[in-house]
Amino acid sequence: MFDGAINFGKLSSCGQDEPMDRRTFLLSSLILVFAERQPARAAGRIFRIGFLTAQREPSLAPFVDVFRSGLKQLGYVENVNLEITYRYGDDDLTLVPRLAFELVSTPVDLLVVQGSAVTVVNQLKLSTPGVYVFSGDPVLAGFATSLSHPGGNMTGLTFMAAELNAKRLQILRDAVPHLQRVAIIGNPEHPGSHIERVYSEDTAKQLGIAADFFATATQDRLVSALAAMDRSPPQAISVLADGFAIQNRNTIIEFAMQHRVPVISGWPIFARSGALCTYGPKLSDSYHRLASYVDRILKGARPEELPIERPTTFETVLNLRTAKVLELDLPASLLASADEVIE
Fold it and tell me: Core-most of 1, 154, 199, 328, by most CB within 10 Å?
């Protein structure tokens, strides 16, 4: 009769008791190593993440795939030890509070928040910890004390690198013959945009280029800005990238093409939508890094203790189709430095 006691000193082999042999010992060791490498599965733990954005699903699909790949590399397997619940606002920021409350009531262990939804979620003061990717400056936005010590219940990565606006104007100067006048389109309500404007205007002055800034925080302001440019078209347009600019990129690019004016911005989606060029953070790297923040917090780290990361890798995307339409002969050095060329 089984009395609950197990003799580890001897194992039964072919009906006879004998000391544990080397082969059995190695097998036992491999089993232990396998178990240690899959702690969540061994403990029966399923981690639940809520992914929240105000954007539409198709616009983020490639980056979500990168994020999921990053989690998989860290040992999180969907439908095994990980569940991700997604909520998309379809470009309606007013939906974010309801979607956020839906996720935390699921409940989830962690919120992953993307883009402009971060500001809204911060105002909700949720108890669920959060990590984010954000295009603006988190400190100026008011939800981080500093990049090194965020404070609060959220941390993550920012795409903001205002100094890159100088490089974009240099690219325009090299691509457009006799460039003398540039229009800068930016959303003044985007945290950090005034710093981007300063970099742009200072660089334009150094290059001997006149820069006209057009504040476009709303659809009406964008219409007014394009009407002003229609009366006196610039030779090129630099767009400060944020959620509003992405939503209205086709309107801006179509206007520019009607006037045969090249557009440059910071994120690849602009070049892929018809802008001449983009130069900015390699967004896929940031979304991959986002997975490591999720991993650390799920393992017990506190968001307030994890420094906010700025971009460290950058990419240039050129649209040669647009260059041909605009009859621009791009410098060989620019073509050689491009990470992606659209032909």
Answer: 154
Distant-in-sequence, close-in-space partners of 42: CB < 8 Å, separation ≥ 6:
35
Sequence-distant (≥ 6) Cβ neighbours of residue 340 within 8 angstroms: 268, 271, 315, 316, 317, 318
Say if residues 319 and 340 touch (Cβ distance below 8 Å).
no
Question: Structural domain boundaries of the chain?
Answer: 42-159+283-305, 164-281+314-342
Is residue 248 a contact partner of residue 228, using CB atoms and an 8 Å limit?
A: no
164-281+314-342 has the same fold as 42-159+283-305 = yes
DSSP 14: T
Could you tell me the CA-to-CA distances from 68 to 173, 267, 295 in Å, in that order?
Answer: 39, 21, 12
Residue 59: the pLDDT is 87
On the question of pLDDT at 238 being above 90, the answer is: yes
Instruction: Return the sign of the alpha-carbon dihedral for residues 163, 164, 167, 169.
Output: negative
The pLDDT mean for the chain works out to: 89
Q: How far apart are CA 281 and CA 316, in angstroms?
A: 9
Confidence (pLDDT) at 296: 97
The neighbour count for residue 218, using CB atoms within 10 Å, is 12
CATH level 2 (architecture), domain 164-281+314-342: 3-Layer(aba) Sandwich (3.40)
Task: Report pLDDT for 138.
Answer: 95
Q: Is the pLDDT at 127 greater than 70, yes or no?
A: yes
Task: Please state which CATH class domain 42-159+283-305 belongs to.
Answer: alpha beta
Q: Amino acid letter at 158? A: T
Burial (0-12, 13-18, 19+ Cβ within 10 Å), 193: buried
Measured distance CA(323)–CA(301) in Å, rounded = 48
Whether residue 181 contacts residue 210, with contact meaning beta carbons closer than 8 Å, is answered with yes
- Bridge partners of 215? 186
Q: Please state, in angstroms and rounded to a whole number, the distance separating the CA atoms of residues 93 and 88.
A: 10
CA 214 to chain centre: 26
Whole-structure pTM value: 0.82
